[in-house]
What we know:
With about 270 residues, the chain is α+β, with helices and mostly antiparallel strands.
Amino acid sequence: MYREAAAAPPDPGESFCYFCGRRGRADQPCVACRVEMPAIPCACGARCSPFETACPHCRGPLREPDLPPMDCPACAAAHRPAGPLVRFSTDDLTLHGCNTCRGVFVAARAWCSLLLSPHRAPELPAAGPSSGGTLASLNCPACRRELERGAFAGRSGVTVDLCDRHGLWLDADELRGILRFCAEGGRDLSAAEAAPLVLPPPIRMPNTFLQAGLTGGRPGGRAGGLAETLTFGLIAIALAVAVSAIQKCSRDRHSSPGRGVHDAPAPTGAVAGK
Length: 274
């Protein structure tokens, strides 16, 4: 059941990014995070808007691919006993949800319909006491490929798991959180703010001194003092190595065997042959 009436029709070819919610063309990557936009594939090879019912290129009918019976990816990763995802429809969209963890799988048409008017959030069952975010990597319930994980819109506080061919997996209450974020204007941000959206591998700091410098330690404070000590220490070591190399070069020149009078430079003003 929806809370508000349907929004205005979308623009031709329009889609909404899975990773940041921005509007864009279904046949082009998202301008902010550069991932493929949700689309319905046509038999002619075109990537069409999820809002379209006929291909604008060949005029053939467009149907979202039928999904097979699917197990819950979150419960499978957590080794929880759970039945298959349950298909349920509400007005003009279809979702697949888990009765155990309350997660939901959202395909392209349902996703774009929801983001077109995020105030129309469907009433979904609330998370149970034992459900929670999944730390392990998940596999697509349709094709079993590993899902790509990212932070939705960079600063929404919601982590999503994406299969670019079949849809988006959201843990319990995450769909509600995304729609609330979009309804409040959170996705209206610049491309620089929205990207990168794919979660990077953890940064391994070489030591606490560099970490203090990167986190804004001030000179005189504990973090700043350690960073300064490291800097001056490295400079002193570099100078000592340079001086040692110069001294060694000088000793080698003076102690080289076979150097005779003919090797010495001629005095200033000397005439050749004399």
